[in-house]
Amino acid sequence: MSKYVAFNNDTALSYVQELGQFFPTDSELSCYEFGDGNLNLVFRIQDTNQRSIILKQALPYARCVGESWPLTLDRARIEASVLQKHGKVCPALTVKVLHHDSELAVTILEDLGDLAILRGELNQGQTFRQLGSDVATYLARTSFYHSDFYLSPADKKALVQEFTNPELCSITEDLFFDDPYRVHERNNFPAELTEQVHLLRQNSTLLINIARLKSKFFSSPQTLLHGDVHTGSIFVSQNQTKFIDPEFGFFGPIGFDLGSFIGNLLLNYCAHNGRVAEAPRRRDLHTYLLNTISTCLQVFEQQWLALAKEESRDLALQAPGFSEQFLQEVLQDAMGYCGTELIRRTIGLAHVADIDEIEAADKRLAVQKQTLLLGEQLILNAKSCRSTDDFYQLIISFVH
Ligand SMILES: Nc1ncnc2c1ncn2[C@@H]1O[C@H](COP(=O)(O)OP(=O)(O)O)[C@@H](O)[C@H]1O
Ligand SMILES: CSC[C@H]1O[C@H](OP(=O)(O)O)[C@H](O)[C@@H]1O
Question: Which keywords does this chain's UniProt record carry (predicted)?
Fold first, then answer.
């Protein structure tokens, strides 16, 4: 019999007290639930001396929809294990796992409450100098050390099995590659976008590119991805960056995480057109976002190629020039996935606050038209991207 039970504030608190590991004995503890994500419960347990931990628990369904959308509890195991694997190769940029119980689908994490979620900060016009290089470092190190360049074929195949994540992958497969391109009740966009959406769905070249991206998502186990790199999955301060929430993790194409991240910066870029009235301020924020994208691409490339040169263990993959060729394809994939993130966040089920919180309907609509068009252009032009500079110049040519 399963011991699973969904916690409330009281039972989460008792569970932590029984573990007896995180606070001095006789501490006066309190607990409250404050999750704002689409899927899980998140509790903070704290004492009266500023000590606190986070308890995250998966529900047997998607929290944002309810029991009508059942969802595997195994996502908690996947999330904790990805964090442990990524934390080994990139400890400074990964939230720490303090405890995990797969049967209860519970993970206890370090409390990052001194930092803030990146999406909210960007929406308030905050900037973070180290963001582009930190994200690049996380993506380069986690993707390289879980790739065929580094792992033995046997270890890699065992890990691919351990991180098979069919139910969560199926959500991504539906929301990124199917729903936006067909009529579906999960989609969500204003009537004024109908004509643009209709044209998008009739673009046969676009649909072939979407098919290519989905096919690669299905069957390209290049590395252990985070699987859901958006600006709501990154905590930041002026001197720290921490990744959380990799429950969509699985072995997939390296370009998926990189493209998702850049897609979220571009969603924020376009949203500023509807959020920030003063032109000079808007220009500064746009410049910051473009510089962050440029830094992220360059540092990712530098670090990935350096790791490939110094740490590759597979003989054939060390052939001179191969890692550069491999990386070029990663960049093309990233540009395509970046486009799919822009489109699905505009007309699919899961939107972003960057756009949805724009109060004036006409300004919001103008932003939605821009993100849809930008997404389409990035997907259509992905194959012509041969370098990080090409990637950056293509973005510039579409946003200006
Ligand atoms: N380690 C943490 N420290 C502090 N707050 C956290 C931590 N992990 C999650 N949270 C809070 O809980 C919210 C939801 O967490 P998230 O992991 O994104 O949940 P979901 O899986 O439901 O998307 C985050 O936006 C953040 O406010
Ligand atoms: C019903 S899942 C929709 C969407 O939510 C996930 O993000 P998060 O849990 O971090 O809010 C993921 O991006 C899914 O595509």
Answer: Amino-acid biosynthesis, ATP-binding, Kinase, Methionine biosynthesis, Nucleotide-binding, Transferase
Ligand 2 pocket by Cβ (under 6 Å): 37-39, 62, 64, 171, 175, 228, 232-233, 245, 349-350
Task: Let me know if residue 242 belongs to a domain.
Answer: yes
Residues 138, 252: one domain? yes
pLDDT band per the 50, 70, 90 thresholds, residue 37: confident
What is the distance of C-alpha 241 from the center of its chain?
Answer: 14
Are 92 and 142 contained in the same domain?
no
CA 297/CA 136 separation, integer angstroms? 7
Please tell me the total count of domains within the chain.
Answer: 2
ipTM: 0.98
Note whether 98 and 139 are same-domain residues. no
Structure confidence by residue, pLDDT tens digits, 336-360: 999 999 999 999 999 999 999 999 9
Q: What is the pLDDT of residues 105-158, one digit of tens each?
A: 999 999 999 999 999 999 999 999 999 999 999 999 999 999 999 999 999 999
**C-beta 111 within 6 A of ligand 1:** yes
Task: Tell me the torsion sign for CA atoms 262, 268, 271, 273.
Answer: negative
Say how far apart CA 273 and CA 332 lie, in whole Å.
27
Reported as a single tens digit per residue, the pLDDT across 294-317 is 999 999 999 999 999 999 999 999
**Which atom number of ligand 2 is nearest to the Cα of residue 62?**
1
